[in-house]
Every structure is written in structure tokens, then in C-alpha cells.
Amino acid sequence: METPVQLNSQPLSKNSNREDFSEYVAHLQLHMTLQARNLVPTLTSPEDSREEMLQQTQATFEKHVSRQSV
Description:
This protein is mainly alpha-helical. It has two helices and two strands. The radius of gyration is 23 Å and the shape is elongated.
């Protein structure tokens, strides 16, 4: 028979492990959401920011392509 893993002298059940894992996943999802919000530019005026975003994307793409072909 397997002995349960102990942490702080208390046996951990499968339920406890699932709860810990669920809490970890929830924390990770929150962290990823907050990171994504920081990566997405704010759209102030639709035409200007779309044009600017397109130019930035094209410039970034061209940089990556030029570095790879060397």
C-alpha cells in the first residue's frame, strides 16, 4: 500500500492535490491574462492605431525575415 505524501506532517489526499493543482492553474490563468493585457496595445482612434499597428507588425516581420536569411 502506498503512503501518502506528507507536507507539514499532514497527509495529502488526492482531493487535496487536485485542489492545489486547480489553484495553481487558476493563478497561472490570471497571470497569463494580465500579461496579455499588457501586450495588447490600446486602440484609441480606430484608423490611426490600426495603421500604426499594421506598420509595426510589418516592420517586426521584416526584421525577423532579414535576420533569418543571413
